[in-house]
Specification:
The protein is α/β, with parallel strands linked by helices. The chain has helices at residues 10-21, 60-67, 83-95, 98-126, 144-160, 169-175, 200-213, 261-265, 330-343, 392-403, and strands at residues 2-6, 25-29, 46-47, 75-77, 137-141, 164-167, 188-192, 196-197, 217-219, 222-229, 234-241, 244-248, 252-255, 275-285, 296-299, 304-309, 312-321, 355-362, 369-372, 378-382. It is built from 10 helices and 20 strands. Bound molecules: flavin-adenine dinucleotide.
Length: 418
């Protein structure tokens, strides 16, 4: 079968890998000049299996209210809002109901644990290197209320069989000695023992290389414009390539276009509930590598993550609902740098902060959309939101199973299935 994938980010390239491994002829198109140049470019680097709790949870509405009007708030809803943002916000509120949060947490946990297994297998099979570290993720709590929430989360993780344990401040420092400077301010931590970290862009670039070696065709500088279709079947994809319009034909089509999956599908009458949620990162080279963390960290009080990527530290966070805008807000950039100086003073070279912003393709439930669309030969692997790196390998493996008519080996609400 010939399969055409739109998007060469984490979702598209991992899908290409598994579909090629299953024996298909695969073409990947992307409007950029290479792979992973949009949201998969400079994310927080965490494979965070220990964080299945979605943003939409019973505590979220109050937290968001408390942050309203603060330009440096971890989650910022910019006004005035267009209709899509308001509709998404209302759906988000519905997902905050306790029973929906429980259902969503379980689905994400299943997919995350499965993804961890698939990622390890893929790494072994390909021997690709992307500054990966299998040292866990340490969640840090600087406020009592966050710690108590963490304890409740850890109980859920135990019930789900996900490796984790609560730590005292001194145990946090034993786990990651570079935290000594903040030990007295810490209330405690939670250690996700199965978590990992690594450079997503490097992973995608290396994997795209392996895919190409295995016969996958990549067409860059190629924009998907619109699909040729009848009632229930896609007959081709019109693209703009090198300034010329062409029609690409395939047996199956996969949408892995991140936040842009929504506008791409709208003309087909498919309303994907994906909103672009902007996040920021800074990548700092290390002045004092021996004093920098090797364990990946999540500051649960300020909603900032930090991962060691070779000789640099990636610090990422903040969520901003402001359409498809990727401009860098100086105040939000400065908050990341302040965090680095506060927790690891003198460790990073802050002269060249390498700021970046990307759009998380986020559904109100935080559940990615994986599976068949209403068209018999069009499939989704999109909407991975805050966890696209964590969930990449499992999502793509499951998608390849679905396309081949196999039941994926996990319990997850895939689309288009009874
Ligand atoms: C600040 C930040 C920190 C994050 N930290 C983490 C983390 O620590 N752990 C984690 O698990 N996840 C994290 N994420 C989330 C993760 O990065 C995303 O979920 C993931 O990158 C999404 O991958 P994707 O392939 O779906 O989208 P993308 O990487 O955006 O890929 C989509 C591709 O589609 C292409 N495209 C779009 N439209 C078209 C078109 N019409 N024609 C052709 N090509 C098109 C784009 O060029 C792009 O290359 C973070 C995200 C952000 C923003």
């Amino acid at each position: 079968m010939h399969i055409l994938i739109v998007g060469a980010g984490l979702a598209g390239v991992t899908a290409a890998w598994y579909l090629r491994a299953a024996g298909h002829t695969v073409t990947v198109i992307d409007r950029n000049a290479g792979p992973a140049l949009e949201t998969s470019f400079a994310n927080g680097g965490q494979i965070s299996i220990s964080h299945p709790e979605p943003w939409a949870n019973p505590g979220a509405p109050l937290t968001v209210l408390k942050w309203l009007g603060r330009n440096d708030a971890p989650l910022l809803f910019r006004w005035p809002a267009e209709a899509a943002r308001i509709a998404w916000g209302l759906q988000f509120l519905r997902e905050c109901l306790p029973h929906r949060t429980r259902r969503n947490t379980l689905a994400i946990a299943n997919l995350a644990a499965y993804s961890g297994v698939q990622l390890r297998a893929l790494r072994e099979a390909t021997d690709i290197h992307y500054n990966s570290l299998s040292r866990g993720v340490l969640h840090l709590y600087f406020a009592k209320e966050n710690y108590l929430h963490g304890e409740a989360q850890q109980r859920v993780l135990s019930q789900l069989g996900i490796g984790s344990r609560m730590l005292t401040p001194s145990q946090c420092v034993d786990t990651e000695p570079s935290l000594a400077h903040v030990e007295t301010r810490l209330v405690g931590g939670m250690f996700g023992t199965e978590d990992e970290s690594g450079d997503a862009q490097r992973f995608v670039t290396e994997l795209a290389g392996r895919c190409r070696d295995a016969g996958v065709e990549f067409l860059y500088d190629t924009s998907a414009e619109n699909f040729l279709r009848d009632e229930r079947h896609i007959g081709g994809l019109k693209v703009l390539r090198g300034g010329r319009h062409e029609t690409l034909l395939a047996d199956r089509y996969v949408i892995a276009a991140g936040s842009y999956s929504t506008p791409l599908m709208r003309p087909l009458g498919e309303r994907l509930p994906i909103y672009p949620v902007k996040g920021y990162s800074t990548t700092l080279s290390l002045r004092n590598p021996q004093r920098a963390p090797a364990v990946s960290l999540t500051d649960e009080s300020r909603r900032i993550v930090c991962s060691r990527l070779g000789d640099s530290l990636r610090i990422a966070g903040t969520a901003e609902l402001n359409g498809y805008n990727t401009d860098l807000d100086p105040e939000r950039c400065a908050a990341l740098l302040r965090w680095a100086e506060d927790v690891f003073p003198g460790v990073c070279d802050t002269a060249e902060p390498n700021y970046w912003a990307g759009l998380r393709p986020t559904t109100p439930s935080n559940l990615p959309i994986i599976g068949r669309s209403k068209f018999d030969n069009l499939f989704y692997n999109t909407g991975h939101g805050t966890l696209g790196w964590t969930l990449a390998a499992g999502s793509a493996h499951a998608l390849a199973d679905i396309i081949d008519g196999r039941q994926p080996a996990i319990n997850y609400p895939f689309t288009g299935r009874a």
